[in-house]
Amino acid sequence: MIADIFNGAEKTATSITTGWLEKLLISGTLIAVEKHCVIFVLFAVVVFIDLMAKWIALARKDLDNHQAADKSLWACVKDIPAAHRNGLINSYAMKTQFLGKVIVYMIITFPAICIDTAIRISGGHTEFGIMVIAYLCLTELLSIVENLNDAGVSALSGLISIIKGKRGE
């Protein structure tokens, strides 16, 4: 048993030094883009929440179609599989929209961050990245609130006009 531990430790020590240049380059790159990776993950989470809110809204439509007595938020959540079976929720379309949205967000956000970085390196100060990220976040938040409003969560209806006002609509 102790021999196995030493053999494992030796293999680990040997593998740590293997490919050190690649490991150094990859870790350096990840450190350099860490903030941007966090932003991307947060975007993906917000878009995923929007997708869930859309499913809830479509499940509410399914409950309306079947004249269900209970149309609460929890009833909508529980009805998501039934709405999928009934064709209101199309997994292929939803996944495509989700992935497409994330790709568009990356395409829009990356140049804004590059512009900010280039201007900062040259001594200036800009906030194009923050502006784009804030706009995209507000757009997703608006979509989430509208979807939940469609699902019957009427307490959020006043928030729609506030978010639209912040977005400049």
Strand content: under 5%
Figure out the total of helices. 7
Largest sheet: none
Radius of gyration: 23 Å
Q: What percentage of residues falls in helices of 4 or more residues? A: over 70%
The first-to-last residue Cα distance is: 69 Å
- Low-confidence runs of at least 5 consecutive residues: none
Into how many domains do the coordinates divide?
2
Structural class: mainly alpha
The secondary-structure element order is HHHHHHH
Q: Total strand count, please? A: 0
What best-fitting shape do the alpha-carbon axes yield? flat
Q: If you average the pLDDT, what whole number results?
A: 84
Features:
mainly alpha; flat; single chain; 169 residues
Q: How would you describe the overall organization of this protein?
A:
The chain is mainly α. It has 2 domains: 1-32, no CATH class; 34-167, no CATH class. The protein has helices at residues 2-17, 20-32, 34-65, 73-85, 91-121, 128-150, 157-167. Helix 6 packs antiparallel against helix 7. The N and C termini lie far apart (69 Å). The model has no long low-confidence stretch (mean pLDDT 84).
